[in-house]
Amino acid sequence: MIRWLGCVALAFVLAAVLALRADEKKDEKKDNKTDIKAARAFAGLQTEFNTELLEADKDEAKRTEVFKKFSPKYLEHAKKNADDESAVLALEVVLQLNSAKDKAKVRDEAVALLKKEYVKSKHIKPILRTLAVLGGGTSADQGALEIIKAVAKDNPDKLTRATAMEELASSLEFRAIVAENLGRNDDLRASYEKRLGADFVKKLMDSADTAKKEAEDLRATLEKNYADVLPKEEIKPKDTPSEGGKFKVGDPAPEAVCEDIDGKAVKLSELKGKVVVLDFWATWCGPCRAMIPHTRELVKEHGKKPFVFISVSCDAKRETLQNFTKTTEMPWTHWWDGQGGKVAATYEIRAFPTIYVVDHKGVIQFKSVGFDKKLDSVVEKLVKEAEEADKKK
Length: 393
Known about the structure:
Blueprint: H1 3-23, H2 32-56, H3 60-80, H4 85-97, H5 105-117, H6 128-136, H7 142-154, H8 158-184, H9 186-196, H10 198-206, H11 208-225, H12 232-235, E1 257-260, E2 265-267, E3 275-281, H13 286-290, H14 292-302, E4 307-313, H15 318-327, E5 333-336, H16 342-346, E6 354-358, E7 364-369, H17 374-392
Parallel strand pairs: 3-4, 4-5
Antiparallel strand pairs: 1-2, 1-5, 3-6, 6-7
Helix pairs in contact: 1-2, 1-4, 2-3, 3-4, 4-5, 5-7, 6-7, 6-8, 7-8, 8-9, 8-10, 8-11, 9-10
């Protein structure tokens, strides 16, 4: 199962379809009553799914049963409402709930339906990022890759073709840098091998150069042929997108407005003058939990200095975070962003854990996916700089 994509991206699906409804202009050729009926059916299905998923919480077996129960329901909705944009969104959910490695029949049917009916459709655009993440990213999902490449080649709308290429380029860049990180980080590689298997990880690492070259070719094509429909800043490669999104070292850290573990409003800007580590995680994330003992030592070493370690929880329920910290020693600052939260969206978090380090001036100085041993030395250096700045005041 695709835990990050399946759990976080799903939170946006209902909002996406409602937004599409709000902005949609009436089509005189379309039966509006049928249109509304499809939207309501999808919204009801999504509500039912989210309710059962939240009840399952972090119980992996229960979550898997929920996925299996609802995948056929989403596929059936797509078949019954083929002319409505909610059909494509329903097929997206099927892909998210069932990885290519599962070899589930329901997923094969969803892929086949997308290939047959929606490659040239205007409705495909909202799910291009998901297709790119699955096909070009670390999942290396061949079915999703074939679909988004076909959209980039054959969709009649130029902006849709360009968007497909841009999303795929970003995802391939994501794959390349994760592969490079795996090559230089033994702990990260071990965690990936445990979850995905040594053979898969080796193929992923071997694909780094090919992915990078393909992304470069896509960027060149966008620059040459699609500059009129995509802004230049979207055509240029995003700096190390696998390491937390579009923000690079040296950029001012974007504002993060959130709530702490008890519901109190908090802001990143209120911590200016201190070195801040933003650790995006979830309680169900194995590699995240594996970091806890090391984080304890890091916080203990710098606890009385101008330093704050913030674990930004993306768990669906605040209570899940609260219960976890009651039984696990985590003596540092905790924020709760929720499933599909604004802070994770702002920082374009695509995997857990993703770590940013912000210096006392509010500038990003480090970022990584997974634990990177460089974190300690970076924090030590930045804390010393913050202390020197305090002395000069």
